[in-house]
Each structure stands twice: as structure tokens, then as C-alpha cells.
Amino acid sequence: MKKNSKRKTKFLKKIDFKKKYTIEEGIKLLKKISSVNFTESLDIILKLGIDPKKSDQNIRGTTILPHGIGKKMKIVVFSQGKNALIAKENGADFVGAEDLLKKIQNKEIKFDIVIASPDTMHIVGKISSILGPRGLMPNPKLGTVTENIKNSIKNFKNGQIRYKNEKNGILHTTIGKINFPVENLKNNFITLLESIKRLKPTTSKGIFIKKIFFSTTMGPAITIDSIL
Length: 228
What we know:
By secondary structure, the protein is an alpha/beta fold. It has helices spanning 6-14, 23-33, 81-89, 98-105, 121-124, 128-131, 149-157, 182-197; strands spanning 20-21, 41-48, 60-64, 75-78, 94-96, 113-116, 160-164, 170-177, 209-216, 221-224. The protein has two domains: 18-68 and 161-224, CATH 3.30.190.20; 75-158, 3-Layer(aba) Sandwich (Rossmann fold).
């Protein structure tokens, strides 16, 4: 029989997998058992009461977390003329049009966010097969197709995150680094949860948020009390 690693043994000793922890208890516990040689992220997993096969029940949105996620986001902006200058002045990491397209096709740059002005979407569309699977295709509903380039860049630099459910109705995202103060992580989580609750589809019946789990990048998932 395969023996448990020291890390897993540590988890098994300190976690009650049958218990539903409060937000504070869950965060404090995951802080205590984090033992890797890098700063892990705190992730949340929500089991939603939706039918992901129905387009009108899929959840997709953005929100600005009050304390950010502890990561500098690499921002790509597809724009031309005045908007390109605005993007550069406001801290975009990569700005361009056809030239930027080639860099992405050739995997020359790494990035986390793609913003585009409407007049460049015909260019961005050429790499939809690259951006789409990563969830990076610009979308007006997410504020990533916009004439207000300055505001969009500012929001992402101030902690705006995007989220959407997966095919099985699970929503998984990050709310910060495990070394953040407990109160900061709690505030980030509540902000995210309130944002998601506002998007509950009218056609979704019964309990909307069925289960909540917290986990770290390399750690186990623990159940959080859904009565908030």
C-alpha cells in the first residue's frame, strides 16, 4: 500500500473533512497547514445550482476585490492611434494591433488579460482559437472590449477578476495569497460571493450556491459553511 507523504499526513491530522468551517476558521486552518516553498493562492470552489447546458443559466462576470489577488497582471491591449497611447500611458504591458497578433501567435509574450478597442476586434478574432480556451477572449460584458481603455486597465490593476462556471456547474477562482491577513481574504471572498449571487439566473430554481470549498494551490479542499 502506498504511504501518505508527510504533507498529506499533516493534512489528515489537522483537517476534519466532515466539518463545515466558518470563513475565518477555514482561512486560518489553510494558513497553518501551508508548507510549500512558495506563497500559495487561496482558491474558492463553488458548486452552483445551475444547468450549465442552458446558456441562460451560465454565470460569467467580473468584480473588483478590495484587496486584490497579490499578483501583478500582465495586460495586453489591442488598440490603435489615440487609444494605443492611452494604453501605454496607463501601464499596459503590451500594446499594438497586427504586430501584437504575431507576437501572440508566435508565443513570444506571456499575459493574463486581453483588452481590445472595438475597432481592433477583427484582428483579435484571428486568434480566438488561442484566447478562447484560456478564457481571455475580449468581451463587452466583461469590460474587455471598450473605448474606455484607461478605465479597463485601471480596474484590472486595482484587483478586478473575471469568473465563469465550468461545464459541470463548478465555479473556481482565486481570491488572494494565503499570506494576506485573514480579514482581507474574508472581505475578498464576501465581495466575490455577493457579485456572483447578483447573477443568479431567474430560471435557476432551488438553492443557487450549493457548496463552498476553500483550498490552497497545492493543498486539500475544505468545506465552508454556506450559511453566510
